[in-house]
Amino acid sequence: MTMRKKLLMGNEAIGLGALRAGVSMVCGYPGTPSSEVLETIAGERAEGVYVEWSVNEKSAMEVGAGAAIAGARALVTMKQVGLNVASDPLMSLNYVGVKGGMVVMTADDPGPISSQTEQDTRHFGRYAKLAVFDPSSPEEAYTMIADAFECSEKIGRPVLFRPTTRVCHSYASVAMLDPMPRATAEGFKKDGGRWVIFPRLACANHIKIEEGLTTLADEFSDYRGNELYGGGSRRGVASGGVSWSYVREALSGSDTECKLLKVATVPFPARLGEKFIEGLESILVVEELDPVIESELISLRGKLGAKVEIRGKLSGDMPNAGENTPGDVRNAVFRFLGKDAKAAVRPSESALKLPARPPVLCAGCPHRASFYAVKEATKGRKAVFSGDIGCYTLGNAMPLDMVDTCLCMGAGITMAQGLHRVEPDTVNFAFIGDSTFFHTGIPGVLNAVYNGADIIVSVLDNSTTAMTGGQPHPGTGVTATGRVTRKADIYGVLSALGADDIQRVDAFDLSASKFAVKRAMSLPGVKAIIFSGECAALSRGKKNGSCSIDTDKCAGCAVCVKNLGCPALAMENGHASIDEAACAGCGVCGQLCGFGAIA
User: Fold this and answer.
1) Which part of the chain is CATH 3.40.50.970?
2) Mean pLDDT of 536-554
């Protein structure tokens, strides 16, 4: 019988692997590079599998926890910075425990490619005393997610699953396996306070957690994901995650015998590590992002009294930031083994690097119009523009230059309040998107109202969670599975929170937007402007034509090009020109033109 194979993105493999493992509850918050896991499950789920985009990662963690203590297998998805938001319930949940298997999939983003920070979830696992599974490829991720569920059920605690960007977004031919037997959740059973985290219970459970980690470390030495290869050499290479795939690729076809250790878990498989160290004179550790495996080997070396040299990030042999590449890993391994590093470079990698392509707001993005309107309306006023996480972070780029601060989701509203307290004579704007408003913006507005701040909250409502792929949120009225639900109204929420003045304007109407901004600046208290305009990615299929330039009227002043920075606009032969394929037909550029040259 021929085994069926599918070409899958890593995140698709994780989603299908979770379904194979019998997951019943899936919830999360979208964030690159994690988003496609939940979307895959939403599209492929069987009857009895519940899927939701939660309002934020903390909520997702708590929903998943409720399902897990009722005996269901639960998967919670997020990116590495989302784990910061969810850490409060997760830390406590590890002390309380779960009944059904609970896996928290946290996609790390070395680089970072699409995140505020680089974070290594393996460190969080050690800090929070949680087991961590670290897949090296989409194929391994497909089967390892089931191992993570089984481990969670065995130890009665949540576990972390940590793919990185290249595992999440690379493709592979994955062998599809038969579904695993799926147990029915028995439901919540009252148990004399077992599920209530009192200090006395926490202390007792802390002891159990430490004992469990010691046992798990020993058992992980026999786990199939942790492997020992080769021998006959005094040199060894230890690796994990996607870097392991790069190491194996580098050594494929090599005539150099080398001892290899693959580490896929936290806690570290110490017994396997001892076998690896035995007989070696030097070790190179290749991993992303932090020296987790390296530190464990150094500690093990000390316990064993071994004389082996350990090289990696701590010794400066491997970079301590950014993601690894196949070429960089190959060169490092070849240098370590005494081979010609130059010979290891493939022709495609020796070519000139492409110029940097910084991200920009799409042609037809309503945020560009909103930023421009605020910029024009505040000329002559001392103003600070606090930004937030989303597409609108790109408003910091020239020529708009409209994001002065950006910290984390929801922080624009609260940072504006801090700025206001230091400089009361400054007009403080806080930009936040519609999805982020529901994620963590609401407490910030309430804080401003309660404490009598003087700020202008600018909600950039484009009707989607755009930066992570257009997922729905409470303001769209549609759930993750496409079910129509009650739509949360941003205006109504702001009103209920007690905002002193609220305006809603069409983001593409520059005149109305500028009037709204000037009005807000003239009023005291917490003001809010909702700039509504559909995301260009959503509206592109609906557009009726594009804007065009009448070259007879165009004066070549380049005001439209220089002031907006729209990628569909350029100067050509002394006149403005519009790329019709890129243009979304929003008409904002035409409102800037003093010569009526754009129609």
Assistant:
1) 5-220, 366-540
2) 83
